[in-house]
Amino acid sequence: MTVMMLASAMLIAGCSSGAGNDNAQPASTTASNVTMTAAQRQHIRLHTVAPTTFSKTIETTGVVDFDSDQATSVLAPFSGPVTRLLVSPGDRVRKGQALAIVDSPDFAQAISTYRKALVTAKNARRLADMDKDLVQHDGIAPREEQQAQTDAASAEADRDSALQALASLGVDPQVINDIHAGRPVSRIEGTIRAPIAGTVVEKLITPGQLLQAGTTPCFTVADLSRVWVMAQVSGSELASVSVGDPAEVVPGIASKNFPGTVANISALVNPDTRAVLARIVVENPGDFLKKQMYVSVRIHSRQQSKGLLVPVSAILRDDENLPFVYAIQRDGSFARRHVTLGYRTGDHYDIADGLKAGDQIVVDGGIFVQFMQSQ
């Protein structure tokens, strides 16, 4: 019966029956073990288990978001109805570029205030200079001259404050120069301007909409040359992820991967997924990555781990789908050894339990050994 089983196994493996008879070995004392001839052993490859140092790669998913350090929400700086929109989502804008026009009484009031403050400051300074000359010739009391200087300084402070108000509202510098020079200016409309250079990614207002100063969001402008990817990291893998770890973002489109770096790890756990968000900063040439895009993420941990790594090809499954390997015994036979699979790195598994350093296992030809055992 044993001879018939070995003959069948050799036939499957492509061995000649003559070679098997010449190299026959005594049967193992353990009935469930597998013994093979020298010729049959040529069809398998062994691996000696040894402690190995490796770095983990955490594979997960993430969502693309704007880099909040390079994106801003543009609020209405003044009240009034929108008369014109000058940009659309997707348009690139420079810093200070006009985004929308508003018929704003706040705007007109700020210009009027500056005009008045400018005239008042000029007159107050002129009077203060005259009093300074008069006090030197005993024309007025020093107290009156000091009061004139105080009034002039106060008027100039009001003028500077009114000028600052115009600048904060985005008034064209040329209009300010015309007012300062006393030149007439045409009817001035309120202009909402881009606070930073970038891309208009959101338009939140429509013509005719009434804006409230400081509260109505109008646009979102973002520099899309760099984005954030918010990656989900499970609790079991959190200890392997650190700020500064390199990462890869895989959008799954056009076979293009984007390198990045872990910049932040959240201190909070998502109550629904029990995962922690890791923020990955990614350069985004060509604005390829879009907000809310789902991507795959690989985080390459810089921490060194130690374990018993065996090739994936060594792992087989029994009738209950439990993983096992074939390990060589002292008598030269091969026996099943059930193992507990740990982290997978590339084509290797870290064996958490079931093997020890120095064990020799089958890493190529395990199916052949399994067939022989089943006969």
Automatic annotation (TrEMBL):
Sequence similarity? Belongs to the membrane fusion protein (MFP) (TC 8.A.1) family.
Point out the signal peptide segment.
Answer: 1-24
Q: Which GO terms describe its molecular function?
A: transmembrane transporter activity
* Taxonomic superkingdom: Bacteria
Any one cellular-component term (Gene Ontology): membrane
- Is-annotated flag, keyword Transport? yes
Record domain Multidrug resistance protein MdtA-like C-terminal permuted SH3: where: 308-365
Q: PANTHER family recorded for this chain? A: CATION EFFLUX SYSTEM PROTEIN CUSB
CzcB-like barrel-sandwich hybrid domain: from which residue to which, for each copy? 72-223
**This protein's record includes keyword Transport:** yes
- Which residues belong to any copy of the CusB-like beta-barrel domain? 226-302
Q: Which residues form a coiled coil?
A: none
Which controlled-vocabulary keywords does the entry list? Signal, Transport
Q: Can you name the source organism?
A: Rhodanobacter glycinis
Name of the protein this chain belongs to: Efflux RND transporter periplasmic adaptor subunit
